[in-house]
Amino acid sequence: MKSGAAHLLALIKEIALLSLLLAAPASAQGHKLNNVDLCDGKDRTSPDLQIIGCTALIKSGSTTAQVRASAHNNRGNALVDIGRYDLAIHDYNESIKLNPQFAKAFNNRGVAFKKRGDFDSAVNDFNEAVKIDPNYTHAFVNRGEVYLGKGDYAQALKDFDEAIRLQPSVGSLWNERCWTHTLAGDLQTAIDDCNESLRLEPNNAATFDSRALAYLKLGQWTSAIADYDAALRLNPKLPTALYGRGFARTKAGDIKRGKADMAAGKSGDENVATEFARYGLQ
Q: In 60-152, which residue ranges form alpha helices assigned H by DSSP?
């Protein structure tokens, strides 16, 4: 096992090498944006170009500590986008050293920890982010999703409640709470939240999928099938909607079409049947 210092040095060398490898093809293409624009992700800059722009700013002796903190944070975001979580966490560490009150860097490092499966570290970072900025909706949502994944529905609901208080017109937040209520077994409250989500964002396949699961758990097969139909009109290959509709059709007596739907769902996600079994539907 590498020591802390050796691991840090290895990460720094890996970032430097990655920047060099990415810089060659980018130079050949001749991008038009300057390093600040590249690092900020202007015009939907690709992660590769964003890493190059941020690296140039970090190496520049003319930038302030605040600019370097932002550059490390933005490069960390680009590294997360390409799945390099350890390298991203190193950048967020540097960003926080330069600006200990940078709530975004704490939140983003929490996301990297979450993606890496280190949920306790993720929660600690989200805690720090909302301590610095009590109105940071994304940090509440991210922390709520970690609690949801751990099966701590009460804590997850507290975070989604707060997110909705901060941004009540964002339909996806109501869906997050709908889904959590569904898993917690508070099904009518879940349906009410999904209804509000769909009022705000009528074309969200994920919300139809969430409400359909609540109807499934209530044994309301016709309503579940209608919602899964709506989800599949918006996202025809959504595995959970295919499998869920198949489950509802089978329970309603439409065995042939039900089995076909369930098979289609499993072809899209081999774990979907196991997922439904965890919801008590098998």
A: 65-81, 85-98, 103-116, 119-132, 137-149
Tell me what the mean pLDDT of segment 214-229 comes to. 98
Question: How many angstroms separate the CA atoms of 5 and 12, rounded?
Answer: 11
Report CA-CA distances (Å) from 119 to 10, 11, 50, 230: 24, 22, 27, 34
Name the residue type at position 40: D
Give the model's pLDDT for residue 33.
Answer: 52
164-189 burial, b if ≥16 CB within 10 A, otherwise e? bebeeebbebbbbbbbbbbbbebbeb
Treating both helix axes as pointing N-terminal to C-terminal, what angle do 119-132 and 137-149 enclose, rounded to 10 degrees? 160
Is 62 domain-assigned? yes
Structural domain includes residue 87: yes
User: Number of structural domains, the chain?
Assistant: 1
Taking only the tens place, the pLDDT of each residue in 247-277 is: 999 999 999 999 999 999 999 999 999 999 9
Q: What is the CATH number of the domain that holds 71?
A: 1.25.40
